Write a sequence for this structure.
């Protein structure tokens, strides 16, 4: 399995955001890898670490999430890999919850997201975003 952290979705991945919304709650799993030092595309001077720059992004994004009815349900630092193999571990795992895909798209189009995105790009070396929905309940042993 090849894993490539990215900063922006490919055109094919972006097209997925515009697929019909089934109305189900979306739990976006974010696997984050930070730069050691933040590097801003506009060339501004910064002494921030990548994690600190990304934190500026997440502080603002949490307000945007609330505006569209979402929230962060999980935020944790990665300690170690307990099964499998990857070349390099991510630094953090964050799960953002949106009421549906339409709410996620609405948030991405908020005017403040453009300014916040500068901190995201400055701080991230790359990430994986995995869109998930809650699975139907598994049958209990006595129901099989």
């Amino acid at each position: 399995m090849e894993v490539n952290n990215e900063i922006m979705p490919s055109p094919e991945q972006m097209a997925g955001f515009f697929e019909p919304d089934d109305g189900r709650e979306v739990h976006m799993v974010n696997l984050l890898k930070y730069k050691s030092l933040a590097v801003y595309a506009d060339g501004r001077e910064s002494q921030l670490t990548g994690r600190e720059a990304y934190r500026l992004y997440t502080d603002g994004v949490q307000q945007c999430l609330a505006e569209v009815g979402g929230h962060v349900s999980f935020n944790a630092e990665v300690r170690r890999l307990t099964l499998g193999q990857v070349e390099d571990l991510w630094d953090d795992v964050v799960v953002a919850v949106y009421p549906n895909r339409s709410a996620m798209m609405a948030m991405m189009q908020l005017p403040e997201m453009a300014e916040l995105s500068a901190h995201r790009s400055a701080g991230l070396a790359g990430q994986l975003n995995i869109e998930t929905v809650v699975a139907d309940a598994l049958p209990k042993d006595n129901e099989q």
Remarks:
- DSSP finds four helices and four strands in the chain.
- The chain has a mean pLDDT of 91.
